[in-house]
Specification:
- The two termini are 35 Å apart.
- It is globular, with a radius of gyration of 22 Å.
- 67% of the residues lie in helices and 0% in strands.
- The longest helix has 29 residues.
- It is mostly helical.
Length: 427
């Protein structure tokens, strides 16, 4: 008989610390969104209450033997929060977008602006998802520094690292390789470039990875009901954050959740089918409604009511074209797929047509090579061409090749390991 491995309590601390960090951010956004609907301005209390509630939620699902683990996880999580907030507060966001409208909205929220009932007459501040601004405004009230709010990037990078490392080390029984993969997944070129700015692309990537790994962990399962509840709580928090920092966050997370939702239903046994579908449907319905109609009321609901589309100004009547001037003029008549291929396998550059001096034609490069101009371009916050870094094109080709070579062996793996491998391949 095969002997089951004893759970490593030290690994469990990684999971609960990551979960605590995600819930601290998600609850700050949630309390802010609900408060605004009730006419309450955002204050530092939203953050402090969210941190306390996040810790309480961990213990709600705790067994007796997990209480000490979760206590240490909350302590570790609070130390990470303090470190991230301090790092962000003592660095300045020099990005154009950060100073053009992100800080404007954060400052207005700090001063009492309620986007549910009033506007700033700015298409960005009034219409875009405001979750990261809610979090930043609460921290602004706590620290007195408008820069402290961009700590959300560092917090979610840390959470992503801890959660990915936990899942991979727990399932593989190893430490070194999961540590390397977790670092590569969490500290991507985009996340690293934007870590000390109010840009949200790297933040969205962190949320998306946490969402995917949560779905994978639920799929691979565990005998303890608290195991599933904890991962579903993490899934709820990560999707809520993603939906309220960028319109595409709702779309990307929605696609992955839909795929796993169908997969879970197909895998259900007939006696549990009806009950399972009802439970899953109720979970995702509450998640979508709460994320968009409560926390995201000032964006999704107001955009629909005032402009006829929840994703205004990106879509709908009177939508604004933000893409054309933010890409090279040579991309004007090319399909999305062709632009993706050119951008992925070209030199890293920040070329765009709005500035004639930077309207450069993307040039293909030999994979795994890098030059000084690429390094200069990566010093910015939002490289438009080959934005995933100078080695991504080569890594993509190598990954496809290795996956093809390994596919016969993958088919022979145990079902659980095969699911984990395919999840990593998707990422």
């Amino acid at each position: 008989m095969r002997k089951e491995k004893t759970p490593d309590n030290r690994n469990d601390i990684l999971f609960f610390t990551g979960l605590f960090l995600v819930m601290a951010v998600a609850l700050t956004m949630s309390l802010s969104g609900v408060g605004l609907i009730l006419g309450l301005a955002i204050s530092f209390w939203h953050f402090l209450i969210a941190v306390a509630a996040g810790g309480a939620l961990l213990f709600f699902f705790a067994k007796d033997k997990q209480a000490i683990i979760k206590r240490w996880a909350v302590i570790a999580g609070c130390l990470i929060l303090i470190a991230c907030i301090a790092l962000a507060a003592f660095t300045f966001d020099y990005s154009y977008d950060g100073n053009a409208y992100h800080k404007e909205a954060i400052g207005a929220l700090h001063e009492g602006w309620n986007p549910v009932y009033s506007e700033l007459d700015s298409i960005y501040s009034d219409s875009y998802p405001k979750g990261s601004w809610f979090f930043a405004a609460a921290l602004y009230g706590l620290t007195g520094s408008i820069e402290s709010g961009k700590s959300i990037n560092l917090i979610m990078i840390a959470a992503c690292f801890l959660l990915v490392f936990f899942l991979l080390s727990k399932k593989s029984g190893k430490s070194i390789l999961p540590l390397i993969i977790a670092a590569l997944v969490s500290v991507t070129p985009v996340a690293l470039q934007q870590a000390f700015s109010y840009y949200v692309d790297g933040l969205l990537a962190s949320c998306l990875y946490i969402t995917i790994f949560s779905l994978a962990a639920i799929t691979m399962g565990g005998k303890s009901p608290s195991y599933h509840k904890s991962w579903f709580m993490l899934l709820f928090g990560s999707v809520l954050i993603a939906a309220n920092i960028k319109f595409t966050g709702l779309a990307y997370c929605g696609l992955f959740c839909l795929a796993f939702y169908v997969y879970w239903i197909i895998g259900m046994k007939k006696p549990d089918l009806k009950k399972g579908i009802m439970r899953l449907s109720a979970f995702f319905l509450v998640l979508v409604v709460f994320s968009t109609c409560v926390v995201g009321y000032s964006s999704y609901v107001k955009n629909t009511a005032q402009h006829g589309h929840p994703f205004y100004p990106v879509m709908g009547k009177g939508s604004v074209d933000f893409i054309t001037e933010n890409q090279p003029s040579s991309f004007a008549n090319k399909s999305g797929l062709r632009k993706l291929v050119i951008s992925t396998f070209s030199y890293v550059d920040n070329a765009y047509s709005a500035d004639p001096a930077k309207d450069r034609q993307p040039k293909f490069k030999i994979p795994f090579t890098v030059n000084t101009r690429e390094l200069e371009a990566m010093a910015g916050y939002d490289t438009r061409i080959s934005g995933f870094g100078p080695f991504f094109g080569g890594c993509l080709l190598l990954g496809i090749l290795l996956f093809g070579l390994a596919f016969p062996a993958i088919r022979k793996l145990y079902a659980e390991k095969r699911k984990l491998f395919i999840t990593l391949a998707l990422i």
